Each structure stands twice: as structure tokens, then as C-alpha cells.
Amino acid sequence: MRGLPYKVSTEDIVKFFSPLVVSQITIKRGPDGRPNGGAEVYFSTHQDALSAMSRDRDYIGQRYVELFLNSSEDLR
Hints:
Blueprint lengths: L9 H8 L4 E8 L5 E9 L2 H7 L6 E2 L2 E2 L12
Antiparallel strand pairs: 1-2, 3-4
């Protein structure tokens, strides 16, 4: 994810993707330790990750959020 509000919480991200179930969230931070507007979000299945992409450019608060798929069906 990119473009998140700097004060976004993991709960905000979970709500953004609801009803999909998020399995893990890592909010990215800059060298100073402050959030930088990015996050990695993990889902249990590739299909859930694909479904999550339907939220690309939706808004959290006043900011639109860009999503990037980093998943494949075969993760061997």
C-alpha cells in the first residue's frame, strides 16, 4: 500500500479491506521511525489478495491509497 495517512492504524487498514480477512500488516517507517505512508498487507490466499486489489485508489480519510499486488498462485 502507498499513500496512507501518516496516522493510519492497523485497525483502519483492516476496515479498509473488510470483509476480507487480513492476516498480517506491517506499517512502513522511515529512518526517523515515523510512518512513511506505506504498508505491507498479507492475506491468507492469493485469491484474497486479488480481491483486495479491487480497493486500489479507494480512500482512507482524505487520501487515496494505491495498491500493488505482490502475490502469485504458486508460491513454492
